[in-house]
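Write out the 3D structure for:
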Amino acid sequence: MLPCYVLLDLETTGGNPLDCRITEIAAVRVENGLEVARWSTLVNPGTRIPSLIQGLTGISDAMVADAPPFDEVGATLLKLLDGAVLVAHNVRFDHGFLMQEYARMDVALRVKTLCTVRLSRKLYPQHKGHGLDAIMQRHGLTTLSRHRAMGDVDLMQGFLKIATQELGADAVSQQAQILLQGSAAVPPHLETNVADIPETAGVYLFYGEPPEQSPKAASKPSKQTIQKTTQIPLYVGKSIKLRSRVMSHFQAAGREAREMRISQEIRRVEWIETAGELGALLLEARLVKELQPLHNRQLRRERTLCAWRLDDNPSAKPLVTLVRGDDLQPREFGQMYGVYRSKNQALSGLRELADLHGLCHQALGLESGKGRCFAHQIGRCKGVCCGGEKPELHHLRLKLALQQQQLRVWPYAGKIGLREYDTKTGRTEVHVFDQWCHLATVQNEAELEEVLSSNSPLAFDLDTYRLLLKHLAAPHKAGLELKMLKNAD
């Protein structure tokens, strides 16, 4: 198949290489088609083996109690891997664990990898299943040591022997070389051809399965299980180079727990091209709120956004009121301060502001009662609550204290368009905004006229507001052309 390779399998305490450890290693080195070395060992993981994993592998805590830790056997494995390609079934799983174990030894593992799941897909595209159980059934392979490291290595070796007999050594070698030249970082169960993803600006969407109950099962799922599961949105991201960004997720799987979980669960990638970065940012924010992907933490739907509205009357009680949800209208931003993501956050922020500037908690509505407020009694309020400070002066101090948090009034007479153009693809998009709200992204005059003639209510979005503040400061630097738009007749 290859001039020199090592067939390897690991058994572990779970599916996450950042938290779990190796319990068994098996490796067979093959040079010029001949087996030249065979080695296996139990490994003391330094932690308990979950009962579910003990039941799957048959490896118990007692069996590994006297086994060497990885740092005592790591050098032996490195000698076996020297100058060879690491070959494994779902190689990302095994490679990720080895990288972490060697990192704990301050050793950088540098080895090329080849996945026999992906090789099976290449050699037998007519078949649906490419897990070890499916390969065993397909080719009539048997073993008494399934889910033990050397037993699974023997299965891989048997599969390669049968594939060579059925398809020829040249065919197997050719497909192995193609995979080797590609990226071994791609999850073997990914149904999407990464090469089809364009290297342009846009948004990518990962679809797959929710986490499995069994960590080991999650790391090596069966295709039959996949087909019975409804795919769900896992993650939405954006980039000016889609393919490179998608690949970066897979390449980081051995180092970051979230990327490992995504790589284990992903089955399909979709993408939407845009004319540039702003279009990708806007689309990403919208899709995250609509789809609520499992692994996105930011850009979620803001159901509890709120801001403080300052009353013009210095004697009003309270001087500020909390505005939430649909009442947060951009046309009134001249009197609003914030924005906060929850009522508790807004109250906490106002209390801090009051304490910092010696403002009255009673006047702000943070404290009930009459007469001297508690802050005045301890010398932190200048006494607007009891006639010690004029309401007009207190109101002015409050306004000055809030000034840095004041929401920007829309600086244009009406709707605007930010034109974005990709010189490589020729794609042009116009992003239409009014009162800090994104109305639509259009690609032709007909779509633009439809947007301009629409009277749909404005929906304020904090992420869009912040994006616009940044891009409107110097649109030309971001490659944007700003145009004032008139409503259609």
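The CA atoms of residues 285 and 318 lie 35 Å apart.
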